[in-house]
Amino acid sequence: MGPRVVFTGGRVFDGSGSPAVPGDVVVRGDRIESVRPGGGTEPEPDDHVVDCRGATVLPGLVESHCHLTFPSALGHVDPSFNPPIDVSFFHRMPSPDEHLAIAERNARILLDHGFTSAYSAGSLTPVPTEVRLRDRIAAGLAAGPRMRAASFERDNNPVRMGPDGPAPQETGPDAVRAFVREQAELGFDSVKLLMSNDDVFFEGGSMVTQYSAEEAAAAGEQARESGVWLNCHAQAPEAIKRAVRAGFRSIYHCSYADPEAIDLLEAHKDSIFLSPAVGIMWANVHEGAEFGIDTAMAEKMGSVKSLEAMERLYPELRKRGLRVLPGGDYGFPNNPIGRNARDLELFVRLFGYSPAEALRATTFHGGQVMDLPVGLLTEDYFADVLVVRGDPVSDVTLLQDPANLEVIMQGGRFHKQAA
Ligand SMILES: [Zn+2]
């Protein structure tokens, strides 16, 4: 059985959305043994006791729109991947091993910031770097969040990044099916399609739906057959609708959902997850100037319009009970990996979430998108536990400063421990 770790003296937010209450969390091995509101755990001789006075105990955070193969992280900004201004990254691509080293560094940075799980929203290149990274983390060979790895995003339109971008793919249902099958065989957990294009890639791109209903349906059928999930970038209303009808599980952005798309999303709210990726939109509109994204550029990239549309859409989707998850396309120079907890603040400020609702979306719903026993502090779940100084349940901005993270535990092992 081994000795226990007993978190005591703090307030416990279990992730379910119930208010934080004083209590103990008891961990044995890699799992949570018990959660005791009110405390009073009978001591055992070998207990490792963690004094949580003045702090809150909560589940490890889950990033729902993660790009660990994007190069920029806090302290390691790489301006060569800053579309549309600079995509020279693709001209002097790192070797697969070099790219793995970058992704591994990013994974550690994300874990250092309290994210014990990460659901990928796509690889930057067709190489299965994320599969290798996921497996190395799972084997204990690298520090990082538990991962669900996603394929690189399949375009269905050769104009995406101009002549320097990835080679155009063949179109048609059979080509889509073949792509999904190949990515599943490479070991990815999910396959990502660009259901709509995006203004970032060419003007008006966000309203261009790139897959026919037949192609989307073919992706859905093949994904079920191959045992992988489907994710997509979708801005245009028709792109969203086709994705929902084809059985996509995670749908990103959705900025321009029309009333019919909203109703369709609501009708499928038990089977889909939405990640607005508001972090990148906010960064483009407010924090891009240093990297060439001034207001005019943010407008050209569609970020100004998209952010405004999200501020209208997501309060409505929140009311309708959709699972909308923080996770914000971190990995760009103006939105580096490590800043991910800022998404919770944006949910509160822009989408009308209470801080507790934003935390519940990041933990409970995060565990659901991972499809793993994480995201709740409850018996038999993995012991992914944070101890955060102060009360992040009323002020989620506390999560943005790693100095407030006194303890980061993952699967019962201390990644970070208070001095
Ligand atoms: Zn993304």
Model description:
The protein is α/β, with parallel strands linked by helices. The protein has 2 domains: 4-59 and 374-416, Urease, subunit C, domain 1; 61-340, TIM Barrel (Alpha-Beta Barrel), CATH 3.20.20. It has 11 helices and 15 strands. Strands 1, 2, 3, 4, 5, 13, 14 and 15 form an 8-stranded mixed sheet that branches. Strands 9-10-11-12 form a 4-stranded parallel sheet. A 3-stranded parallel sheet has the order 6-7-8. Helix 10 (342-351) packs across helix 11. It is globular and about 65 Å long. The two termini are 26 Å apart. The relative contact order is 0.17. Bound molecules: zinc ion. Zinc ion is lined by residues 65, 67, 121-122, 277, 329. The site of zinc ion has 6 residues, from loops.
List keywords for this structure.
Urease, subunit C, domain 1, TIM Barrel, single chain, 11 helices, 8-stranded mixed beta sheet, 31% helix, 419 residues, alpha/beta, 4-stranded parallel beta sheet, binds zinc ion
Remind me, CATH topology of the largest domain?
Answer: TIM Barrel
Tell me the name of the CATH homologous superfamily of the largest domain.
Answer: Metal-dependent hydrolases
Going by helix content, strand content and strand pairing, the class is alpha/beta
**DSSP helical segment count:** 11
What is the mean pLDDT?
Answer: 95
What percent of residues adopt helix (DSSP H or I)? Answer: 25-40%
Short précis:
This protein has helices spanning 96-112, 129-138, 173-185, 213-226, 237-246, 259-267, 278-286, 295-300, 303-319, 342-351, 355-370; strands at residues 4-12, 21-28, 31-37, 48-51, 55-59, 61-66, 115-120, 146-148, 190-194, 229-234, 250-253, 273-275, 385-389, 405-410, 413-416. Helix 3 runs parallel beside helix 4, helix 5 (237-246) runs parallel beside helix 6 and helix 10 packs across helix 11.
